[in-house]
């Protein structure tokens, strides 16, 4: 059976649901979203409760987008009646003179370029304002007031609900098996059905690699299985969102974490632990080693949060070799837009959805997304040296 649509979206996670909403807002009249799992599933990158949202970023390509990012979430909250952003403030910590301190310098430069205010933190400031931290005398940091928690599950619910109310059609259990792109439109096949559309958004996350041959793409997509831990404590009241901010600790490894939110526990993880996998190796069973490593961090730096493991959860980073977004239309096919979030896109999901909708309805976006082009060296050069730590290199 063949049915015609103005726009087809592959994937109904954080990005695909946002694209569907913003397409409807832009006036697209017949939008279809194809999702291989059931609504609200946790198999992609939109599970769990929380993601960090922040203005402090390693490059001004990202920091320059944060005004529009917060504006997009404010509209979604207003229209849905659902709070998705909890403001806690955010801190970045490192030892002076270290590579981590150099990363914080990058954050300063990017925020300076965008005119974003932040505060310097001395060791006395850290110990007075955030007594939960046990850090060395040479620790420095910055505080940015707008940092906080993005409730990623709520964000998907809000986008899907608003999109459905605007007439967008969602189909779950629809595994895309083929895509055909021609000069005038697309045809997407799922099992025994095919759907014709004038435009296509591909927001398939870790499954983008399966569709690359049909899209004429061949860049390397690296998958790393990541894992977060929620830890109980006798002192959880010291870690509520009104008393404890989101945080990133920059050292030989980057750790990040949250106040109590979604579970009666403190959540933390290592960023880019580098457990590289193939798509078929994706596992939803947490390993037993990671909680011990995370508890070691808590014992050293946040001893009041150290306690029994409440739960672990897994997720996957799917990344180009420079760990920057892919946000572009296919060369020669401006009616097909592709996105890959490189393991750090949750905070930008609504804005990215709006940009994708703009590209396919207006043919342009007001935002500078040139750094995320499909024509950049990390995509086109097979000898590009992978750089998976944000701010490294």
UniProtKB/TrEMBL annotation:
Enzyme class, broadest EC rank: oxidoreductase
One Pfam family in the UniProt entry: DAO
Protein keywords: FAD, Flavoprotein, Oxidoreductase
Cofactor entry: FAD
Superkingdom of the source species: Bacteria
SUPFAM superfamilies: FAD-linked reductases, C-terminal domain, FAD/NAD(P)-binding domain
EC identifiers of the protein: 1.5.3.1
InterPro entries: FAD-dep_OxRdtase, FAD/NAD-bd_sf, MTOX
A GO MF label: sarcosine oxidase activity
Stretches assigned to the FAD dependent oxidoreductase domain: 8-359
UniProt name for this protein: Monomeric sarcosine oxidase
Gene expressing this chain: soxA_2
């Amino acid at each position: 059976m063949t049915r015609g649509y103005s726009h087809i979206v592959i994937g109904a996670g954080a990005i695909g649901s946002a694209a569907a909403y913003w397409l409807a807002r832009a006036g697209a009249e017949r939008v279809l979203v194809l999702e291989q799992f059931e609504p609200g599933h946790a198999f992609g990158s939109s599970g769990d409760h929380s993601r960090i949202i922040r203005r402090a970023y390693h490059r001004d390509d990202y920091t320059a987008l944060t005004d529009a990012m917060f504006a997009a979430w404010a509209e979604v909250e207003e229209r849905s009646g659902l709070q998705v952003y909890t403001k806690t403030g955010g801190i970045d910590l490192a030892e002076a003179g270290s590579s981590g301190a150099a990363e914080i310098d990058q954050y300063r430069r990017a925020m300076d370029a965008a005119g974003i205010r932040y505060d310097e933190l001395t060791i006395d400031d850290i110990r007075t304002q955030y007594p939960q931290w046990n850090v060395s005398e040479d620790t420095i940091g910055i505080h940015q007031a707008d940092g906080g928690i993005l409730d990623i599950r709520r964000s998907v619910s809000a986008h899907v609900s608003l999109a459905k109310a605007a007439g967008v059609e969602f189909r779950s259990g629809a595994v895309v098996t083929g895509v055909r792109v021609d000069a005038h439109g697309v045809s997407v096949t799922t099992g025994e059905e095919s759907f014709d559309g004038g435009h296509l958004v591909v927001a398939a996350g870790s499954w983008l690699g399966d569709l690359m041959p049909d899209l004429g793409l061949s860049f390397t997509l690296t998958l790393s299985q990541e894992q977060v831990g929620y830890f109980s404590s006798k002192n959880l009241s010291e870690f509520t969102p009104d008393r404890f901010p989101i945080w990133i600790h920059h050292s030989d490894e980057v750790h990040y974490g949250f106040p109590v939110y979604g579970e009666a526990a403190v959540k933390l993880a290592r960023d880019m632990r580098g457990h590289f996998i193939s798509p078929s190796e994706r596992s939803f069973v947490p390993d037993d080693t990671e909680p011990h490593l995370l508890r070691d961090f808590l014992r050293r730096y946040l001893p009041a949060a150290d306690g029994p493991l409440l739960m672990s959860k897994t997720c996957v980073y799917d990344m180009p070799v420079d760990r920057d977004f892919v946000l572009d239309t296919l060369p020669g096919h401006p009616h097909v837009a592709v996105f890959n979030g490189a393991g750090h896109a949750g905070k930008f999901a609504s804005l990215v959805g709006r940009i994708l909708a703009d590209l396919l309805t207006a043919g342009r976006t007001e935002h500078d997304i040139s750094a995320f082009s499909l024509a950049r060296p990390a995509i086109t050069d097979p000898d590009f040296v992978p750089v998976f730590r944000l701010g490294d290199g």
